[in-house]
Design a protein that fits this description.
By secondary structure, the chain is of the alpha/beta class. It is 30% helix and 20% strand. Strand 3, helix 7 and strand 4 form a beta-alpha-beta unit. Helix 12 crosses helix 13. About 7% of the residues have low confidence.
């Protein structure tokens, strides 16, 4: 039987090769089953939903990921039918990504792509991202162009539900108006504003005050701007304007820099304690001088740290991380591009169940990170792009646990994820 099956298989193979191809030479429209390219067989309703997913940006998307995304309207280049579909539906133009460096001339703004996108979106709620290109981020860009873009954004503020502005000039943020005014931005839910150069000066610092019912759930703001905002809350309860915040990102927390008030960090910690729905707290560029934690106004101000779901610290030093762990009790801790030293040793509290380390560096990083990693007793450990995490480092961690009579390292570990 096997031999017979082999012969039948060989015969069918030869028949398949030698049989002439049957070609239907009738026009496609006259055939009983016209052959339409597979890409055009998708129904318009389903295709529209796919396009919405492809062209939208999630509120959790980082600015770096928005920069790496494909430009708006790229799907319209596939075929004429898709091009007509994209131009026809306003919902596909509700997310607008603008690179100010691309506007070389400052001519009529009615003819630039930004104005065209706003017209195509009709009256739909908008998500606007004004960010420089990745290759030119933080450098280049005309102040006049940024000002013009900010002026246009302020005119459509009542339609904006997500606004991300990574400006070069701080005066550009001032031209957005009071973005926390419910009459100017009534449907705003996500706000991220940051600027690289302070050209406004101390006499013209952006003034943010909350007016009306605030719908904001995600806020990313410079520390000095946040402290300016907090100064307007002195006469009423903090919960009223900020009680909907679930995610707060604070940028450029530099307590030792000029212009940063002495009790500024205490006010920021008090703010975090006053937000009932806060689940994610991020600090980007939190730098504290070593030894300054010994001063009076840096000491722990509350008997119990604030329980919170997620704390993320980026581009910060070990002293800043140490201060945060004295005041916060996160369930998940993420450290990204932070610098460690052997003179500022960190030991993690037992409340941390998930630890993520990404691009960790510093002086003698292996020995400076060792006490922190060895003190981790949680269940989930993620290591990304950390050169110090080697077999030798793991031997040091196990040896430290043995000397401390722990028996073995990572007693509660259930999941380990290592990349690069």
């Amino acid at each position: 039987m096997p031999a017979l099956a082999d012969k039948i298989f060989q015969f069918n193979a030869r028949l398949h090769v030698s049989a002439p191809a049957i070609v239907d030479r009738r026009p496609v429209v006259d055939r009983p089953f016209p052959r339409v390219p597979g890409i055009q067989r998708i129904g318009l309703v389903i295709l529209l939903e796919i396009f919405k997913v492809a062209l939208s940006v999630s509120d959790k998307t980082a600015v770096e990921d928005v920069l790496s995304a494909l430009p708006r309207g790229y799907l319209g280049l596939v075929c004429k039918a898709w091009h007509r579909l994209i131009l026809k539906h306003p919902s596909l133009w509700a997310t607008i990504v603008v690179h100010p460096h691309s506007y070389i001339s400052q001519g009529s703004w009615e003819n630039v792509p930004f104005a065209t996108y706003l017209l195509r979106s009709h009256d739909r709620p908008l998500s606007i991202y004004i960010i420089p290109a990745q290759s030119q981020r933080g450098s280049g860009g005309s102040k006049g162009v940024e000002w013009a873009l900010a002026d246009v954004v302020s005119k459509v503020g009542k339609r904006i539900q997500s606004l991300v502005v990574e400006a070069r000039w701080k005066s550009s943020l001032d031209r957005l108006g009071n973005v926390l005014d419910a009459q100017l931005y009534p449907v705003l839910k996500r706000l991220s504003i940051n600027a690289a150069i302070d050209d406004a000066g101390p006499s013209d610092v952006i003034r943010l005050t909350t007016t009306g019912r605030w719908t904001l759930t995600t806020l990313s703001i410079d520390a000095k701007h946040l402290l300016t905002l907090l100064s307007s809350f002195q006469n009423f309860n903090l919960h009223r304007p900020l009680d909907r915040l679930a995610s707060l990102t604070i940028i450029d927390v530099l307590p030792n820099a000029s212009g940063f008030p002495e009790g500024g960090m205490g006010r920021i910690i008090d703010l975090a304690n006053s937000l009932p729905r806060l689940s994610s707290l991020t600090f980007n560029r939190f730098i504290v001088f070593e030894g300054s934690l010994e001063s009076k106004h840096w000491r722990r101000r509350s008997p119990a740290p604030l329980p919170i779901c997620l704390v993320t610290v980026k581009n910060s030093n070990a002293t800043g991380i140490k201060y945060l762990l004295h005041h916060l009790a996160p369930k998940k801790l993420t450290l990204d591009a932070c610098k460690f030293t052997t003179t500022s040793i960190i030991r993690l509290p037992a409340c941390i169940d998930s630890l993520t380390l990404c691009r960790i560096g510093g002086m003698d990083v292996e020995l400076s990170v060792l006490p922190m990693v060895a003190s981790f007793v949680g269940s989930h450990l993620v290591i990304r792009d950390c050169a110090f995490f080697t077999h030798h480092f793991l031997h040091l961690v196990h040896g430290r646990a043995y000397l401390n009579l722990f028996g073995f390292a990572f007693p509660g570990l259930r999941r380990l994820h290592i990349e690069h």
